[in-house]
Write a structure and sequence with these properties.
The protein is mainly alpha-helical and 121 residues long. It contains 6 helices and 2 strands. The chain has helices at residues 5-20, 26-33, 37-49, 65-87, 92-102, 108-120, and strands at residues 53-55, 61-63. The protein has a two-stranded antiparallel ribbon with strand order 1-2. Helix 1 (5-20) packs across helix 4 (65-87) and helix 4 (65-87) crosses helix 5 (92-102). The N and C termini lie far apart (36 Å).
Length: 121
């Protein structure tokens, strides 16, 4: 199943929240993303059904191996793209916002090329 941008954003958010705290709940995702509880609940259900996350009896969210791989890939893209844009002279805020948009649609080939370019700069 190919994830849409929103699914990738949820996985990336869970990864980031999990770096700050061992236990991540849907309410934490709501607060971080600024989304409503019903929206997050629906997304969590879809991600669980697709095998990207697990939800404990206590409501704690955990990335599966597949979910973690997707989240780490998206976060790596976000980090590299933000860095490249900042080095190109874009403000930190704008660079982060633009990287967030680009990270979901950029091909692996292009990202790999930018990664190599980043190492040379």
């Amino acid at each position: 199943m190919r994830l849409q941008e929103s699914g990738e954003m949820y996985l990336e958010t869970i990864l980031l929240l999990n770096q700050k705290s061992e236990s991540v709940r849907s309410i934490d995702v709501c607060e971080y993303m600024g989304f409503s509880k019903p929206s997050v609940s629906r997304a969590v259900g879809l991600l669980k059904t697709a095998g990207y996350i697990e939800v404990s009896k206590n409501g704690f969210l955990t990335l599966t191996e597949t979910g973690r791989a997707v989240a780490e890939k998206i976060y790596a893209r976000h980090t590299l793209l933000t860095d490249l844009l900042v080095r190109a002279g874009v403000s930190e805020k704008t660079a982060a916002e633009d990287a967030c948009k680009i990270e979901h649609c950029i091909s692996d080939e292009t990202f790999d090329a930018l990664s190599r370019l980043s190492c040379k700069v």
